[in-house]
Amino acid sequence: MTRHDLDRVANALHQYGPDRSECAAAGSIGLVHVLMRMSPEDRFDRQPWRGESGSLITADVRLDNRDGVLARIGIARREAMGWADSRVLLSGWEMLGDDIWPMLRGPFAVAIWNPRSQVLTLARDQLGLNVVMWHASERFFAFATMPNGLFAFADVPRQLSEEKFADFLVLNHADHATTIYRNIFRVRPGHVMQVTHDGSRRERCYWSPSDIESVRLPSDQAYAEGLRDCLDGAVRRQMRSAHAVGCLMSGGLDSSSVSALAARALAEKSERLAAYTAVPRPDFNGPVPPGRYADETRYVEAIAQAMPNIDVNYIRSDESDDFGELERFFIALGGPVRNPANLGWFLALLRLARAQGRRVLLGGLYGNYTISWSGWSQAVGHLKRGRLLTAYRQWQLFYRRTPYSRWVALRKLLIEPLVSQRLGNWADRRRHPRRIAAWQDHAPIRSDFAAAMAVDRRAQKVGHDFLYRLREDERIRGLAQVDYIGDWHAAEKAVSGVEVRDPTADLDVVNYCLGIPPEQFLAEGVDRSLVRRAMWGLLPESVLTNRLSGLQAADWYEKLGKQRRELTRRIAQLSDSALARRAIDVARLERALMNWPSGGWHTTEIFQEYNLALTRGVAGGQFLRWFESAN
Q1: pLDDT digits (tens, 9 = 90+) for 337-350
Q2: Potential cystine with 121: which of 20, 74, 112, 208 (Cβ 3.0-4.6 Å)?
Q3: Would you say domain 3-132+187-207 falls under CATH 3.60.20.10?
Q4: Residue 1 — very low, low, confident or very high, per pLDDT cuts 50/70/90?
């Protein structure tokens, strides 16, 4: 390996770390590090670092419990004031070895080379918020945080995994070890891999939700107060930033809780919090699905009135170009875009924040599986354990709080989770005899390509359920619901220069929410009870008692209708690609344009056909064309 090889890698990764790059070589190994300065201590970062033991580290890391790690390894906070997080981590690893990984909080992707043992250690954070990818051949082993870094080596082939692309089209993201590229793999979340000098590899899990200890407190109020304290701590330590901090705020429970706690923390220093909210065009009053609302303004304004140091910035979803952003994002992501209808406005939001100097935004993406879990999937567990009265009460609450009839509520809550997946699939085919498979409703994939790629068998192998039935392990699966989450965070940061952080994914918040009795989420006959009680007195009553959910870009179909000519052009281009013709059901996309609905956009069938199948088919096909041209 030459210095020229390492420089090529650094250049390929420059968009992810434009502030500094450096390379280091030690015998048969070379390390590269690129940096985007986001935390205050990043100004001291000089990676790759060499520790006292001679070990070398290159890492993409943010230590949210930095002080705790320093205390654990016996280094005074004052002594480490000039240390980057990577240096703190390396010192901890030199003292504790692989016992360091479970105690870390915050996203990390780490590579450490031990010259004495000739072992390379790769580690990834518990939820996979950062990513480590790798490729192995008979001649060498290579790793990087993004595929661009691997393809900088001439000997790493850039070949599409058609099986993984098929999984993408049908929304199976449960396999965290593979990527969209053949023979490019990810270290799985919560895992550490050792690679020896002879190329042998050993990967082991260092953290699992099964490791979470039970939390027992004396009262419902104690559980609510415990959540507020835990979430408040997560918010405050994720506000450690070299730049001004803002927040992504909707009228929902997750982001509003994070925003309110961040605003309270800033108010203690007489500072203000900028909030960013996406809304449809003015005066939009189109229909939305049952249980949803279109415009966040009412609830966001109520939050801003309750927290007077919040300044709200509104982004109109109809003013951005979703498809025009695709190729720029392909370059950063190295993969296809799952929800193109949300890409334009979200990037516009990030760029507005960047223009205002807010380069760290707090959000609440994981809240549905932590602080505001609905709690419904616990009912079958109560039934199996003989807690019949509890199961009965939760069934009553379920059909009262959902649009389902009593029978449908009973089937979804208590019957479907008990039957085998094979029997459940048979029953679904009986209800939908004209459908090949459940994924056909929303997936723009050719049926023969799906069969050739064995999408059903692959989904069954990794435990993915296309019917999305309630399961007792719903939250555990939700924490790892998207295989490319680390890639996506890196890409949006590269494109916008803004880092999105999520206190609802803080591991202490995860441990607390999964450790307490599940009944706390349905206490007092209230759904999402825990966070409503925890935030009482801080968030407005109108937000805490709201039973509806906001619909992102509710005017999506108006925007899509204005793009029909452009969509026609893009679909016609797909015919130029043999790969797109083989994988994408182009005829279905063409029929969708020809049979444009005059209404009913809020119905499930039309939403699936146009918001999901049409947009994903066009974007997926455009990715294939980009891949072929870039290759």
Answers
A1: 999 999 999 999 99
A2: 112
A3: yes
A4: low
